[in-house]
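Consider the following assembly input.
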Amino acid sequence: MRIGYYPGCSLLGSSREFNESVKAVCEAIGLELVEVPDWNCCGASSAHVLDHELSVALPAKILAQAEAAGLTEVLAPCAACYSRLIGAYSELEKNPDHKTRVSEIIEMPYTGAVKVVNVLEVLERFADVIQAKAVQPFARKVACYYGCLLVRPPKVVNFDRPEDPQVMDQLAAKVGATPIDWPFKTECCGAAFSVTRTDLVAKLCGKIVDSAVKLQAEALVVACPMCHSNLDMRRPETNAALGKDLQIPVLFLTQVIGLAMGIEPKKLGIQRHMVPVAFNAPTGAQA
Amino acid sequence: MSRIGVFTCHCGENIAGTVDCPKVAELTRQIPGVVHSVDYKYMCSDPGQTLIKEAIKEHKLDGVVVAACSPRMHEPTFRKAAAEAGVNPYLCEMANLREHCSWVHEKNEATTQKAADLVRIMVEKVKHDTPLTPIKVPVTKTALVVGGGIAGIQTALDIANAGHQVVLVEKSPSIGGHMSQLSETFPTLDCSQCILTPRMVEAAQHPNIKLMTYSEVEKVDGFIGNFKVTVRKKAKKVDEKACTGCGLCVTKCPNKKIPDEFNEGLAFRPAIYVPFPQAVPNKPTIDTANCTYFKNGKCGVCSKVCPTGAIRYDQEDELITMDIGAIVMATGFKLMQTDKFPEYGYGKYKDVIDGMQFERLASASGPTAGVIKRPSDGKEPETVVFIACSGSRDRAKGVPYCSKICCMYTAKHTMLYKHKVHHGQAYVFYMDIRSAGKDYDEFVRRAIEEDEAKYIRGRVSRIYEEDGKLIVKGADTLMNGEPVEIKADMVVLATAVQSQDRSEDLAQTLHISYDKYGFFAEAHPKLRPVETNTAGIFLAGACQAPRDIPETVAQGSAAGAKVAALFSQDELTREPIVAVVNRQAPPLFSTCTGCFLCQTACPYQAIEQEEIKDRSGRVIKTVAKVNPGLCQGCGTCVAFCRTKAIDLAGFSNEQLFAELMTL
Amino acid sequence: MSEQFEPKITAFVCNWCTYAGADLTGTSRIKYQPNVRVLRVPCTGRIDFMLIMKAFERGADGVMISGCHPNDCHYTSGNYHARRRWMVFRDLMDFMGIDTERVTFSWVSAAEGAKWGALVNEVTDKIRALGPNTEQKQLVGLGVE
Amino acid sequence: MESLKQKAKELLEAGEIKAVLGYARGTSDTRRPHVAMSALEVDKLVADQACTTNLANLLMKHEIKHLGKLAVVASRPSTLRSLLQLTAEHQVADGAILALVPAEGGVKQLGTAQAFEEHLALVPQKKTEKDQALLDRLKAMPRAERFAFWQKEFSRCMKCYACRNSCPMCYCERCTMDCNRPQWVPVPSHAVGNQEYHLVRAMHLAGRCVECGECGRACPVGIPVHLLTFFAEDSVRAQFGQGGGASATIDNALSTFRPDDKETFIR
């Protein structure tokens, strides 16, 4: 099986381990990733606040490139990329006449033949394969953190429950983890304010991390580069705001799955985290 | 040659604003057969009608076309006027220049042309109109009231007190409905059961009311004055005549862990049960889905202990068919369930309850005997958050309409809570306070000012559990959207009022319309609020839209009065728009060949077979015959008949043909 | 032809749903093009297929037929009967080479005022684009030889 | 042929029937309908490949109707289908007419609608290759071309109504064509009236046509009018799963409905 692949900027920059682990896991489950040729910026963070037409045209260009390459589906692991791509797709499906205008702007035909999927959606299809290949169960209590963009807005993404989503929990459970029932799955992490208002991000992440630890989670699991950098990279600021020293690691779901499949940690970029992926108790100790 | 008068109405500016009415009058004057054509500012006004009547006399008109608004609006008005001036009312037709022309088109020549065309169509129709006389049908003076809540009880009592027979059908084992579950009622805080129970008893004992509990309407045929209704009387598995209502079976039933519907799941009941102590009739019913005997044939305790041998495990559902003259729908509402709210935990938190559950907690007859205890651990909640508009006015995830009763009952809840937990604090999150009604706003002010409920204008974005408390996160929009976080012991959601489950199915059984939310549709939102589009079927209470008790009672009485008015005559006058099978001179007798394929096409079983006999009684021919009492005038048979032997009065082949020929 | 072709559209609508729906279009002041002429019948079940042919004979460029949605017929099932009839009639029209593009069947309820307005506009635009119903008009023109 | 005559004589002699409606030798090689009420007349009966006319058409004629109980020679399945459809439409009482079906080594006597249905289940019915080919060709044509085809065909129609009169299902005492208040279909045989006439005829036979093809054979100018009713019948069968002349008890497809009837064109 093959699927289009749109890494986007984060996966080549701050979240290289996400890129590495997605590729490693997909290889292990037999899914070929075909990178969209000559891809461009998805327009996240800035385009959609500045120029609506541009914010639709940029993702449309990516999808048009994928279409030209004969792809029918594109996987966008970054939640922000996913949101922009599926947002543009959905808008153009609702207003088919805008497709002509967009095609003019991007100077290539856009027909809407390519669908957009996130990493959870793709892995869910391989849930049984993943379970079968999980030779080293990740037997730890985990807090699955979805953030804001993977399951919202519900009418656009049409995927999982917008509040208290379940798919990541189910996938984590397939590889032996015990997801905790906690209320912060879709709470705001501060996202792009990481740079401009680090204080806010520290406060918001503080609540998330603190609550996960209180409920005895041993790891936070995410599927979004921004969530990851805020929860991982901003940990010193977070701890300072909390007045605590919380060392709970933050893993990408693909890393959790990869580890359980016995993929070499280095291949999954585990060493790249700011908060080291280390556990106080041995595997399964909490059980 | 016809002598037709055309009367073009300006409807003030409504028509004249876009249509050149004098020109329409002038253009239509030239149509052959039109002998008089004028325009006037308001044809429906008294002077307007007089103008028509005088013109009929002066010009000896034999047909009238009023070019004005929709015939659905004023056809009866003008037909009456025509009749008063001596023209058969069915020779008066309306051309719809307002809804179908002036209101939907721009002011220009094409619009005026269209207006003239619309008149031309109706002139041709009038030319082929035949004088018709209304049909008289007898009326069965028994009403069926569906639903035994306060709406149905009120309606039934009013009709019965007017001296007519009533069959009151209730699907659950007791009448009383939602009102019997309430603790106290706004804005007087009088005890709900204290005012309702006497009405329930009165309904049960009324000589003119036949009570059918645990029964549902299965089938409705016929038409106004002459319905044939089949009711399924579900088997209670208890012989109501033999049972004395001693309650021994209820106390002895070993299976006592069934969630109690009357207490909204906050308590349990046995498999053989009486819904609540004041139930009417006060006789038990076996819940066969949960009864051990019906599950595996063992047990049989109730049968063994019954002193009168009233338990009937072999009792079957009964189908009872009856003749009914009018039907009142009073099937009530249901509340949206708490599991519909993702941000409030999809119903997983035990202490997030809905308004009706709070009523049971506050009710002296409830599971806690009126002491406010939270469901999870039975502790007295010291902080309670009430969330109004839970699902109401929520276009994204709930229903767009206002549920109407929540503002008031939430205010009532804060008061009941404060009166029982003196040191407790109630918070109310709201969007707007809608307290229009006699003594209503005063009531809400009392909740805020005397009982110190804290009202916060804003929505709650999330509820989660932490350390045994419910963390309620919201915003106070009157404080610049400042985030608010309240650690509550219990949360009460004023969930949206919705139509009953399967209300669409029931509406289809009765052939009445319903809106997209499943509420039954009234015939006119302002002028015919308790009637449906199907003659002889009326509405009362929350099955039509969210309603509070005073409105429900008023509507129940209104529907009762409608039925009483209908029953005040022995015969009904019906529109003569019915199908007729032609009769011809011998040897043809009729162009009908007697294939009777029309019989299966008729939705009303109105087509019968008639034998045409010669003098010696020998059957010459068998042809179709339409029963005018049953025919509703849809014309399906007319379009189906190959020999054109059937025609529809008022919409005949000749008329439609002539209308088409004008185009 | 310098002047734009204005199509002639004949509509047969049932009294209870579409006629009331079209009334609502008016009450809501939703504008649509004035090419349509509405003939009111009690029910779609009343619409004889010959009426459609007669409309063409009288020079209609397009015909609209509309009634209550399935399940919502005022007469319970008139629209179901009509639907079966149309299913065969439309097939047969097509087999005889009569342009079915010019006949629009629809369900418009009493609450769908906006739908009626939009539908009339859509049909008017479509028929305008198709041009005059020359095929049928020529038949009339041929007359008796 | 001999067994048919034998059977006819037996039935007449036993008084079970008053007459046999069959075929006799016509001029040249043709066969014509023949009513036999006596042994002498029975001897004129023929039964061979040339006997193709659907005799059911005659059953509805006044003169035949009044003869009393009949036996009709059903050399083709469409005659039995006609009998079933006429029974369903209350024109013939079940059991009132016997059908004599020439069969391998004798003649089969069928007396009830149920027997007709059972017999029909055994004999396959197919359109002739020629008809099927033309139908397929027409269906494959672009619409405008199909329109031109039929208009060219109809241009020869002179409204002689032979197609109507030869049809066993066109038994109405007064046809829509003769209805003049209003005059639904213009009387003269011009283009509009011809198109409308053939459309009406096909619509009126939809769900009722027994596919005998009599109408097409009757047409003096060779218009394949039978394809119109064949097509309508195919459409009904394809969409509603039941057709004309299949049963005396199942309700007609076009006077009944199913709430879940599926179409694709209603907006």
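Strands of chain A lie at 2-5, 32-35, 73-75, 115-117, 141-144, 178-179, 219-222, 250-252. Ask yourself how this observation constrains the way the partners meet.
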